[in-house]
């Protein structure tokens, strides 16, 4: 039997009451987050293992929720992927990242190597027919050379169309963009992608870095990942590096770049200039 209209409305109203689950609440509020300009782009430095010169920054999304405060992307990105909002949010992020990278360049001493900016794209975003246009537009509007934009790819949710994704990645690569595989070694980024995708960079997931100084298994895995990457012509960046001991160990293993709290936490774009001027090396 069908529910009476009155019953239906009662149920709906109950779910809109203030005690609804936080996941549902985030889901609802996210719809307005973009319009209300509650999203922010943060940036975390990536430095050369040898010598510590800054090479670039990874762009990480933040949501300044009016009552809940800063919400982690681990909480709202999956919701945005689910409801398709990730497409618009991703386009916004590409614009922010490219504009910032151009602004940093103006602050660099003459002759300093150009800084790269890395933007996260879940493979779900590759299902969007507008992705290519969004990347092109971000580069055109900002004037950032394609070589300075890196795309970090994780599987995240199910890949919709491998053929289409591959074609897109080859087009990006043809434009000069850099491609990195993120969270390597976790369930979401597998060996199959190394073979199929035209990659430049492999990122060692922080789950292997956390206890690398004490856990022999993590050491063996990290070393194997680095050797594999180098055999395939990829460079390696380790994330989640919090101590000098971790940095040194990874450097000795041949890891080219380091990212983590040791060198800098993710910071608002407005703080990057200050960080750069206080960063002696390079
Ligand atoms: P991720 O791409 O693996 O990003 C690295 C995460 O590790 C970031 O968390 C960063 O703040 C954190 N981290 C960096 N260094 C350290 C460290 O030394 N120690 C520890 N414990 N953590 C460290 P965050 O910013 O919360 O981002 C979580 C995830 O959300 C990201 O993981 C990424 O998958 C996703 N994400 C963030 N921004 C975007 C975006 O613009 N688009 C998409 N599609 N996903 C995004
Ligand atoms: Ca990433
Ligand atoms: Ca990662
Ligand atoms: Ca991760």
Automatic annotation (TrEMBL):
The keyword Phosphoprotein applies. Residues 23-280 form the EAL domain. It comes from the Bacteria. Keywords: Phosphoprotein. This is EAL domain-containing protein (Putative c-di-GMP-specific phosphodiesterase class I)/PleD family two-component response regulator. It comes from Rhodoferax saidenbachensis. The chain holds residues 298 to 579 of 579 of the full protein.
